[in-house]
Specification:
The complex is a heterodimer of chains A (824) and B (165). Chain A has 824 residues and is α+β, with helices and mostly antiparallel strands. Chain A is built from 23 helices and 28 strands. Chain B has 5 helices and 5 strands. In chain B, strand 3 and strand 4 form a beta hairpin. In chain B, helix 2 packs across helix 5. Classes of the chains: A alpha+beta (824), B alpha+beta (165). At the A-B interface, helix 2 and helix 20 of A face helix 1, helix 2, helix 3, helix 4 and helix 5 of B.
Chain lengths: 824, 165
Amino acid sequence: MTAVDERPAESAEIGKARRRKEDQRLITGRTKWTDNIVLPGMLHLAMVRSPFAHAKVTSIDTEAAKGATNVVAVYTAADFPDGMGACANAWPITPEQVTPDHLPMVTEHVACAGEIVAVVVARSAAAARDAAELVDVDYEELPAVLDAKEALKDEVLAHPDKGTNKSAFWRLDSAEAGTGGSVDEAIAKAREDGIVIEREYRQQRLVPAFMEPRSTVVDPTGEQVTMWTSTQVPHILRFLIAATTGMPESKIRVIAPDVGGGFGGKLQTTPEEFITLAVARKLGKPAKYTETRSESLLSAHHGRDQYQMLTLAATKDGTVTGLKVDLLANLGAYVAIVGGGVPVLGAWMFHAIYKFPAYQFNCQTVLTNTTWVDAYRGAGRPEATFAIERLMDELAAEVGVDPLEIREKNWIKHEEFPFVSVSGMTYDSGNYEAATARAKELFGYDELRAEQKQRRQSGDPVQLGIGVSTFTEMCGLAPSRVLGQLSYGAGGWESAAIRMLPTGKVEVITGTSPHGQGHETAWSQIVADRLGVPFDDVEVLHGDTAIAYKGLDTYGSRSLVVGGEAVVRAADKVIEKAKPFAAHLLEASVDDLEFKDGRYAVKGTDKGVGITEVALATFASHNYPDHLEPGIDADATYDPVDFSFPHGTHLCAMEVDTETGASTIRKYVCVDDIGQVINPLIVEGQVHGGLVQGIAQALWEEAVYDDNGTLVTGSFVDYTLPTTADTINFVTDNTTSLATTNTLGTKGVGEAGTIASTPAVVNAIVDAVRDRGIHDIQMPCTPARVWAALQSAGSAEVAQAQPHFHEEAANNADPGTTGEGSGS
Amino acid sequence: MTRITVTVDGAKYSDDVEPRTLLVHYLRETLGKVGTVVGCDTSNCGACTVHLDGRSVKSCNVLAVQVDGHEVTTIEGLATEAGLHPMQESFHEHHALQCGYCTPGMIMQAIDVLNTHPDPTEEQIRLGLEGNLCRCTGYHNIVKAVAAAAKAPGAAAVSSSKVGD
């Protein structure tokens, strides 16, 4: 008998809070981070980086560095006449997009601080860094453009040879697309006889700030060049190495070993990876590059950095009639791998869960002399969610009703699913009423509102604010045909394979590439249920292009809804494939077999055979049907039919000290509907972590450049990640409406917390001080900004502030001011 | 080069080191104790936390020569033949790690917190872990794991003989 047959049917793995398989090696230090890898004769790299944001390299003197002890070589771009590959843009959002060439090493033109001008190769990392100091580079400094609004003027050019800073303009208009009415008409009507809310919001620049600094090791010995690298995207990297260096793809093996977080920050193909590869191949020796934290903050891509100009039209009773979005997105010095596309992802999300009859989304992307900007957890959707959830609070204040009431008035009712949104997306399932009711209950909404009122009346210096965010997001990137229509350079499918080993163990190969998400555990649960094998007998393999030979990796909350479905389908193929073998062994007809709990049983009899016994029988191959090949392994590639639309209601209570401007999180409750939960423990963890990243945008984090383009938040001293002392315990729960677009009914969860929490926090802070005439505080809402807002509240400047599209626009251009919208 | 003799995870080592060598680099590069990792270079993140004579230190902030004649315990020295350290167990049980990069330092610091506060309040745990950054978990489950470990026997002890001095 196999273990399969002893496994009780009620022990369904899906939904169980399994402790993670990944943990054993991570809690004991038995880890394989890229920087842990040591190979015989391995050399170490140090990068020489431009301190200037915009400059011309006039000369590089490497002699002193070359002469240093233990230095093997010093290279500049001139030493690689055939180039070293390129950092590609995979998603040109328009055919006319201005896309400067992004080469790994600068030849002459430096477009942002931190660009690499030379590389030192030495026997140790310390020797390489010492010698990097000896490389003498002469720069001719050029004027730098840093801010998106400045860039738009085209007065100072980030890339003078391009003649403009404008990269691309992208529009989605519901009237043109036939998915809704004319937004301009809706706004015009509301100006006459309704409510118009006009606001400008700033999405400050953030840094993903994964904990493991990026590291790359390349071994050029042997027939295949092997690259270990701290990446989310080993498959995409392999493809782009082949595509941009001319190396045959079959000669490249990319391995993502243990990867210490990504959050989008490791989905880039980086200059450092290409340079390490080029150096290792040139010298024929293994080479390693590991960045310092300052290099990471400066040169790994940044996130967000948008200006959002928003116009919401509504009737006097608060029924929304139109939403117009003008987005200005700072791409940084280059259009990163999906950098241009990230703001565009907001196009389908600004209208969120509300029934806007008319909608227009305009996005202008610009180039500046700053670090390139790309996906950071949520990627385009947190920005959109922030804007709409802030606006809905403003609308509620204008109408004079509770923020939840205005939302309920406008959201899609649960009986209206599936619902086609004004941007043309089909939301398959959801129940905003249920999630909100549960969140209110857990939060003690009415009690906290009563306390707020009491504190207001008593003039308590510490005021209480309640913030609401009823978000949805689209994730599970992505149906390949949709990506094709958007000119994205790849598909959105995912692959899986299942190998049935003769000893009854099962290997699952996934094309997703986890770096903290717990796929090894969750995929094991899925396969254990599907194949009826014990959880512990399933081994999940990933992150090595020689093993997981096909895949599109992990980002955009795609792994479970796309990659998990591929696993399900591979398992179903194994079951089908093993069936004729089972019938043969049982001397029964295939039609008489049924598969349940890992066992093929002959209907109406007690005869049966376990699937792992079939695996052993095909391994021996002593006795199998003539017309079949001996083997039951299977693989599957799944292309999603649609996106996934998780949603939830997040409620945040903030205490704001009106005397100091300090704000403290009092309570945070979120109820997320992510469809079928595979592992509630992992889901909770994803939500907690997501929440804190979103809260951090609201309260603490910002990447700041000085006027010269020097990143002044270039270490963890200045880029202030939240700590245990800043955060609280969260109350999380789930409601469930199953997704209809995949077998298990799952929706993505990796980004949900981050997408939802930022507006909940800011709404709460604004709610605490709204009675003083304040209706916005720019993020991060530091005590200084809150205090400044409190000081300026009620001033003449505030009362006379202009809507954003007037020439004299005074809306929150400066931190802490409180721009007044025109209202109705 | 300077000669140092140091006990790490119960074994005695003697090496010549450059005086500028940081303890974390000595552990990783000379001894191959790569379970202890580098996260920031500015002593903010605490990923490199180890115990020096039973007290937590950030090993990027200690020179290798300073540990001459002393005893160091890393994440690799916590588990014994008998099994995992209760703090390791608790991190696993309460899903207090995701990518796991901060975990070695976080566990070493968490043990130190319990050495100081055997029956800690949530605030004592939160203040005690303030110097260790995690980007994945939002800290919720880390705090929970440390609180739970405090109830487990032996959570404040490590296998090192000097602990509790």
